[in-house]
Description:
By secondary structure, this protein is mostly beta strands. It is built from no helices and 18 strands. The strands form five sheets. Strands 1-2-3-4-8 form a five-stranded mixed β-sheet, with no helix packed on it. Strands 5-6-7-11 form a four-stranded antiparallel β-sheet, with no helix packed on it. A four-stranded antiparallel β-sheet has the order 12-13-14-15, with no helix packed on it. A hairpin with a 2-residue loop joins β9 and β10 (about 135-140). About 40% of the residues are buried.
Amino acid sequence: xxxxxxxxxxxxxxxxxxxxxxxxxxxxxxxxxxxxxxxxxxxxxxxxxxxxxxxxxxxxxxxxxxxxxxxxxxxxxxxxxxxxxxxxxxxxxxxxxxxxxxxxxxxxxxxxxxxxxxxxxxxxxxxxxxxxxxxxxxxxxxxxxxxxxxxxxxxxxxxxxxxxxxxxxxxxxxxxxxxxxxxxxxxxxxxxxxxxxxxxxxxxxxxxxxxxxxxxxxxxxxxxxxxxxxxxxxxxxxxxx
Length: 241
């Protein structure tokens, strides 16, 4: 065992905690803004904090790691581990195993939940807006350049749930009708949605399943089949009737 990184958490909530290797072989780490409510320390927009970010590390080089040469902040103007920022609590993100595209579910504050999208090959340094924005809605303060921010491709209000749980893009063979659909859920409502992008890059989202229980995570196996995890400890596999 080797400890790669330690990050102090000022509060008990919004810890993020997601780890995934990207198609580039680098380790991506999702961290929440540090907790409490409303990002009182301003970590989401601070480039001098690792909180409220997605970090990107080369764990095959260096001691304990190296910084990929195409990370956006290598000249000392910000922490070099940062790959993207402006996130409140990215509770599950996933790479499309076919395209390398990245989808990030970011838990909202009091009103809105969001899904963010970064196509493969997008430049690093994306700002997803928190805490100037909750999803696409103004939240706190005045952004210097709103046009520079990356807004969600989908958002839903707390009339439909209260805590988004990011999922996976289905690339299995058991349910060909869902091939290419991004499946995600909500911890509070237990609802599961499917979201797909068409040839004109427009997204369509539909509610697929209701009241499944408190959804904590999704997973995918080597065949591309999708699994859903509940807070109760149950694991479900999505199968065709």
